[in-house]
Amino acid sequence: MTDRDPVLLTSTSNPGVKTVVKLRRRSHRDELDLMIIEGYRELKRAFENGHCPVELYFCREMFQGGNEDGLIRRCAEHGARLLKCTPEVFRKIAYRDRPEGLLGLAPCIHAGLDSLRPPDDALLVAAEAVEKPGNLGTLLRTADAAGVHGVIVCDPCTDINNPNVVRASIGTLFALPVVQCSSEEAIKWLCERDIQIVATTPHVEMPYTEADLTRPSVIVVGAEQYGLSKTWLREATMKVTIPMYGQADSLNVAAATTILLYEAVRQRHARL
Known about the structure:
About 35% of the residues lie in helices and about 20% in strands.
């Protein structure tokens, strides 16, 4: 392949290297409007879903397979600036403990509710105030696997452009419509479209298996520590619980989302 004359980076004190490292912090992502996408699968999904990096750093000594050069070439053809790194330099910019030799910088995601256009049989997820990037990323990965039509991140406590969100989602962040807004805005938007709000809470008796999830629905989940706010519980069309038979009094938010989404998938497939 032709590298299209990549810039060679051999010093960890290079200003560009320092910029990549700074982008691990939200303040710098907000300032530069750039996010880090590290790893072959993550970059491939970003590229295939129209989120091409503007800069692509690579180190062939760290490649895990034989497909990396093809992805580099395609990104370059779509305008990505190529930067070839020594192993020392790449280890400096890498966010992962075990770098794969590919890291891109791409524009941050800033989608709002106006960009969300679900079908008539909508299946959505609303995640309120999820604090941990890894949990949010895992939730996105599950939502993509279940064929969800969109994820609404409400009152976000974590930045969806966080590298940990990208990593935990394995790039499905770019395959899904993911929007951010306040809980009040989300509720108004859902009610206007007659999408039933299914709130999860341990303080009711109705098991999730008794809910009719074949209707246009949004599954609403909250952070593990506090659960859903009164705002969502007050406006919910129905409130359901996931029975728990051990000593644990809560489930990981991504795990709870998985259970509910696949019940919705089961019901919808059974109806067909």
